[in-house]
Amino acid sequence: MIDVIQALTGKWWTFLLRGVVALAVAAFAFVAPGPMSTALVYIVAAYFIITGLLAIVAGLSFTGIGNWWLLVLYGIGSGALGIIMLTQPGAGPLALAYLIAIWAFSTGMMEIASAIALRDVIRNEFWWVLLGIVTFALGVYIVIRPDLGVLALVYAVGIYSVIAGISLIAFSFRVKGAADDVRKLTSAPSAQTGAAAR
Q1: Structural domains for the chain
Q2: For the chain, does the N or the C end have fewer beta carbons within 10 angstroms?
Q3: Cα-based distances in Å from 91 to 47, 86, 141, 151
Q4: C-alpha span between 194 and 198 (Å, rounded)
């Protein structure tokens, strides 16, 4: 179990980096909604590809830990969707909205499933579950409101990115904090051995 936790905590930075990227997207969405509405396809596609690659790295580092392949599958799906959006930049607002909705549905379910799969390894997986719920809710909102204009879609992505960024950063520090527990567990036997030797 200790080896499992060490493997997980070793990649805590992948969650942190995803959170920082999400907050950067949110900042751009609110500070410059006009330019972002023009470049929305490229920005969202880049976000999908970056987070997809980070998820694959994280998933492969967790090989053998529960349903680790869910992270890899999510990463592949997210990256593939980003590539599709880059190769089809002329897609209209409705097509873009549905692409984001598809990503939100699949990502939300993957995040919730991954959190459940790792609940015995990491405590306070609440932040990852929350991210999955918010992501899934974004997809539901877009499907309910397919008539959203590009500018409204920009703000929807911005609001989601704020919540996602905060959740990912909080979860990354929860994962990093597990390293302290590992150090305590590994140092306890050595301390007891030293005491016995005296």
Answers
A1: 2-182 (1.25.40)
A2: C
A3: 17, 10, 20, 15
A4: 6
